[in-house]
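1st attempt posting a full record on here, be nice pls
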Amino acid sequence: MLIIGQLFCLPLLTYWKVYMNYQKLDTALAVALNNVDNPQEPSLNVFIHTKEDAESTDATAMLENLGVPNVAPGKDVFTATLSPNAISQLSEQPWVQSIRLSQKMRLLYRR
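the predicted structure (as tokens):
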């Protein structure tokens, strides 16, 4: 970080969120995105909920190119480990309904 007078200049990597459509993200994912150091690294486990018109070849190709596994016709929920940049790209697609952070499951009952 550079300090020029009272102005702080942060590395450019902190400005990757410019084109993120936060309306499609849940609160937990929005918070997690703020804590990521490298926007290129796939580090966030997410659920991608798509609309019915997501069965187009463009949607399928984009999901596959971003590394979403098991993309198949008729599915409307996908799980993947994505980078913040990939999440940003998906959030801008009209066929994406929402993107939610996958939470770690906790054991509810112990003996």
